[in-house]
């Protein structure tokens, strides 16, 4: 096989690296997608977390991502075969020429391997369960952070909180608690209390 052969196999070392890196990105995208489903169901539909729904969402997202990779294989195969006959200098970054065939072959092989790996992962119950668990944690972190951010202003004291604090505590003890104690004494002395 020569360098110009459109069906020559890609070098396995860069291919393995590209597939591993691509799969990490795909897994992260699937986690975000499933987490968004969990959040939407909780906030918009007021539904609790449902493992079966999240698992179905994970498998659906993996199927969608697999199809996306398979579409990439076909698109790159067609582009690579047209490029095989394109000589001369490129006019722009998407004007591929004979010198680009190896890079296009690697991209095509990467898409093909990613599609196969995604398909295997979608059938792997342990992988899907781990994906759902990661999505649930991410959803909880996202929602929890939002709640904390929104409530944070209410929980944080104002910058001048310490000004007059001693006077407020004295008033609480001398006036408010004394009045409460007097009211409690009146109810326990036959004043019609509970």
What does this structure look like?
By secondary structure, this protein is mostly helical. It folds into two domains: 12-144, no CATH class; 164-194. The protein has helices spanning 12-43, 51-83, 101-123, 125-155, 165-188. The longest helix is centred in the middle third of the chain and has 33 residues, at 51-83. The mean pLDDT is 82. This is Asparagine synthase. It comes from Frigoribacterium faeni.
How do you describe this structure in short?
With 194 residues, this protein is mainly alpha-helical.
Main features:
5 helices; mainly alpha; 2 domains; Asparagine synthase; 194 residues
Topology:
Blueprint: H1 12-43, H2 51-83, H3 101-123, H4 125-155, H5 165-188
Helix pairs in contact: 1-2, 1-3, 1-4, 2-3, 2-4
- Average of pLDDT: 82
Major beta sheet, specifics?
A: none
- Fraction in beta strands: under 5%
Low-confidence stretches: none
Question: Can you tell me the number of structural domains?
Answer: 2
Tally of DSSP β-strands: 0
Radius of gyration computed on alpha carbons? 32 Å
What shape does the CA trace take? elongated
- Helices and strands, in order, run as HHHHH
Structural class by sheet pairing and helices:
mainly alpha
Q: So how many helices?
A: 5
Helicity range of the residues? over 70%
Instruction: Give the CA-CA distance, first to last residue.
Output: 97 Å
Protein name: Asparagine synthase
